[in-house]
Structure to design on (304 residues):
C-alpha cells in the first residue's frame, strides 16, 4: 500500500504565500516576488481552500492575456489603479487539490491530467496545510541515474526573443505559448533569459510602480526584456543524463536549462518537461515507485 503525503511530508508546509479573496493584486505580486514562488492558495476566513492564483494569472492580468480586460473595462486602462485595488478573487482559478491522505500517485496523476505544476495540500476539512509542486518531486532525482537523456525530454524548438524585445511582447509570448521562460538571443548568441518570476518581481519594484503611477502602463510595457533578464544562462548538453541536469538546476536554484549542442541552442529542459514527460515514458506506476524509493532513501524535499 502506498504511503500518504501525511507520512512522506514532501512539499512545503505551510505554503510560502497564502492570501484571501479580498487581497489586492499588488500584495500577491509582492508576496510571490519576495518568496520567489509561482503559486498562492486563496483561502476563506477559516483557512479553507477556495482558489489558487499563479504567476501566469498575474502576467495575464498585467497585459499578457484576456484577464487584462478587467484593467481596460473596470479601470479605463489604468494598470496602477487596477493592481492596487482589484481583489485577487477576480483572477483566481479553481484548482484541483490533494489531501494529506492522498499518495504520490494521486499527485502525479492530477498534474499529468490537468497539466498543472502545483497542488495545494489540505486536511480533511479542506484547510490548507501545504503545497506540492513539480520542483519538489523533480528534486528527488538530483542524485539519481535515470538512464534518460536530456534530448529525450527537452522541448523544441527553442522559443526566443531578441534582447531589445519589450516587456509586453514577452508577457504576450508567455501567455500565447504557455511558457514560463524566454531565452534572449542575438543571432546564435545567448544574451540572457527571462522567467515569469522575473516579470512578477519587476512589477513588485517600487521603481516600476512609480513609473506605472506617473507615466502609465505603456511606459512600463516598453521596457526592454534585457533590463530584467538574468545574463547568466545555465546550459546543458543534449546527451547528459536527466539526473545530472536536475542536479545542475538544484545547484543554481532554477527550473530550466537551455540545451546546447555543438554551440547551437537546440531546446530547453524544464521542470514541466520532467513531470509531464517522464511518467509517460516510464509509466506512472514505475515513476511513482521510483519517487517513493528516493523518499525512503532519505532525499525528502521539505522546504520551509
Amino acid at each position: 500500500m502506498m504511503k500518504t503525503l501525511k507520512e512522506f511530508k514532501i512539499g512545503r508546509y505551510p505554503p510560502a504565500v497564502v492570501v484571501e479573496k479580498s487581497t489586492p493584486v499588488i500584495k500577491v505580486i509582492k508576496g510571490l516576488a519576495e518568496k520567489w514562488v509561482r503559486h498562492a492558495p486563496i483561502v476563506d476566513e477559516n483557512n479553507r481552500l477556495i482558489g489558487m492564483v499563479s504567476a501566469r494569472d498575474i502576467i495575464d492580468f498585467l497585459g499578457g492575456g484576456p484577464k487584462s480586460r478587467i484593467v481596460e473595462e473596470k479601470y479605463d486602462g489604468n494598470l496602477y489603479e487596477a493592481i492596487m485595488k482589484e481583489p485577487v478573487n477576480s483572477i483566481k482559478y479553481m484548482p484541483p487539490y490533494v489531501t494529506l491522505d492522498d499518495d504520490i500517485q494521486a499527485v502525479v496523476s492530477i498534474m499529468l491530467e490537468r497539466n498543472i505544476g502545483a497542488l495545494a495540500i489540505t486536511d480533511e476539512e479542506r484547510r490548507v496545510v501545504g503545497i506540492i509542486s513539480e520542483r519538489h518531486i523533480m528534486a528527488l532525482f538530483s542524485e539519481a541515474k535515470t538512464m534518460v537523456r536530456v534530448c529525450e525530454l527537452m522541448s523544441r524548438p527553442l522559443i526566443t526573443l531578441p534582447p531589445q524585445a519589450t516587456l509586453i511582447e514577452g508577457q504576450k509570448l508567455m501567455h500565447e505559448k504557455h511558457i514560463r521562460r524566454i531565452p534572449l538571443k542575438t543571432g546564435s548568441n545567448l544574451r540572457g533569459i527571462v522567467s515569469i518570476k522575473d516579470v512578477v518581481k519587476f512589477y513588485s519594484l517600487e521603481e516600476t510602480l512609480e513609473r506605472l503611477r506617473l507615466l502609465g502602463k505603456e511606459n512600463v510595457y516598453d521596457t526592454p526584456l534585457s533590463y530584467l533578464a538574468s545574463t547568466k544562462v545555465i546550459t546543458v548538453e543534449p546527451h547528459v543524463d536527466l539526473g545530472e541536469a536536475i542536479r545542475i538546476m538544484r545547484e543554481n536554484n532554477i527550473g530550466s536549462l537551455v540545451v546546447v549542442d555543438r554551440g547551437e541552442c537546440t531546446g530547453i529542459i524544464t521542470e514541466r518537461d520532467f513531470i509531464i514527460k517522464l511518467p509517460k515514458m516510464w509509466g506512472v506506476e514505475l515513476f511513482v515507485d521510483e519517487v517513493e524509493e528516493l523518499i525512503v532513501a532519505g532525499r525528502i524535499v521539505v522546504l520551509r
